[in-house]
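Write out the 3D structure for:
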Amino acid sequence: MDLFEEDDDFEIIQYLNYQRRSYTVHERINHMLAWDDHDFRVRFRLGKNVVRNLLEYIEDEIASQTTRNNAVTPINKLLLTLRFYATGNFLITAGDFIGVSKTTACLIVRDVSVAIAKLRPIFIRMPETESEIRDLQLRFYQIARFPRTIGAIDCTHIKIQSPGGPDAEYFRNRKGYFSLNVQTIACPGLKIMDVVARWPGSCHDQTIFKKSRIYNKLVSGYWKNSLIVADSGYANTQYVVTPYLNPSNDIEELYNESIIRTRNPVERSYGVLKRRFPVLSFGSRLKLETTQAVIVACCVLHNLACDNNDLEPPELFNMDLPINEEFSLREDHEPEVGNARKQLTEEYFPFLN
């Protein structure tokens, strides 16, 4: 019993002698003035004009409720988040770059990512009007004369840490690591028109597509006879077309060449997106919900950069990105009766000069 009393006394003495760490205010650089346009883009992956435009959309939502206690300004919150996206590094490193603690950096990345992700309806959208649909079909047709196309679909894996819990293994993909399987649809200008970032890495691309809002719209005839081009991980239907795995004649060879070139923008968009924001290449150690917000936020920023003719991200110095692995299952699904691929190879491609 004496032993327990001595332990209690020791804890009390420790509590009474505890001294709180002194309050430290770190110097915060004005990064908008400290760097020229080139150096700014290298560090934050976006130009100053793009950052200013973005800030106008989210400034009110991310602003601190008070300016007391050296509160972090909205522009510094945004730049910290962009710096985190640009390096995929530890939060403490991004915090040091702006002059805040790791805990503050974590909260800022979460809040700013959610605020940017909320801009999705503005910057990430499929064609709605007849003129938008016709314009998009024409732009796809000009690539390789593939008709009626309004989008190129694919999935990419974003590495995450184990989310824990009884369902954690659902997030382990075929390569053996934990990931989110993210579906996107791209246009010829490499902009992302739709993104789904909620499915675990073990889910098949076709499963994600059939559970998506885009699939329901296609089936309901929302875009009439328009097509989505995909790889052979998807099934051939009236609205989705894929290449032949084993083309048996010149018509099928011509069809394959055309569809492969037409769906190339979605693959290129992944390369641009992950080079611009290496956090998507190296993987996320954030909570699952925050990681999902980061993915959608990066897609919004990618489209914002495309709108400003910033299609080529700046070079990454002393940083080698992981190889973008190919996950699509090369399997030939049972084609749907009356599928568009059969119709095109019988009625369109034989007469294409």
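The mean pLDDT is 89.
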